[in-house]
Amino acid sequence: MRFIDFLLRKIQAINRVTLFICKYTTILLVAAITIVVCAGIFWRYFLNNSLAWTEETSKFLMVWMVFTGIPLALKSGAHAAIEALPNALPEKSRQTLYAFIYLFIIVLMTVLIQQGWLFAYNARLQETSTTQVSMMFVFISMPIGGVLMFLVALELFIQAIIGIYQPQQGVHPRDLDTNQVTAE
After folding, report:
1. Residues 80 and 70 sit within 8 Å (Cβ to Cβ)
2. What is the per-residue pLDDT across 21-39, written as a single tens digit (0 to 9) for each?
3. Taking a C-beta distance cutoff of 8 angstroms, is the pair 101, 81 a contact?
4. Cα–Cα dist 179/149, whole Å
5. How much is the pTM?
6. Cα dihedral across residues 35, 39, 45, 51: positive or negative
7. What is the DSSP string of 136-157?
């Protein structure tokens, strides 16, 4: 159990830093999307001279925003969930269910990382139509987001495993909070 506690503390330390970076990257991406879309609207409707790159750029920024934001949502328990079943279970069974859920996410993220990397690598020679940027920079968001989500799911999986034996230290989605995401 000491090794599992040690492993959990190390993963939590890594996640604290990466989620802190994700939090502010996501905020910056939302701000950038807002600026790009507003610029597109201003140029199109007020200056009668539309900018060709604004739609494409905002879409690609949104892809990055999704893949930097999903680890934050998983960590804070903000993903859509059916809470009736876990709430009806005894604590040990609830932690076992959470362990299976997070294990499934880990497997899914492993596939996303592998296939996302292949997808990004195959797109390295393609360029976007208006900005002439390699599509690899857009598609690399998938494996990067997959790694971030994998780390969060691994932390929550280990916490759920601990929770099977020590329920008070298990995963409790209502107690999760994005305000805990700080780079301490």
Report:
1. no
2. 999 999 999 999 999 999 9
3. no
4. 18
5. 0.85
6. negative
7. HHHHTHHHHHHHHHHHHHHHHH
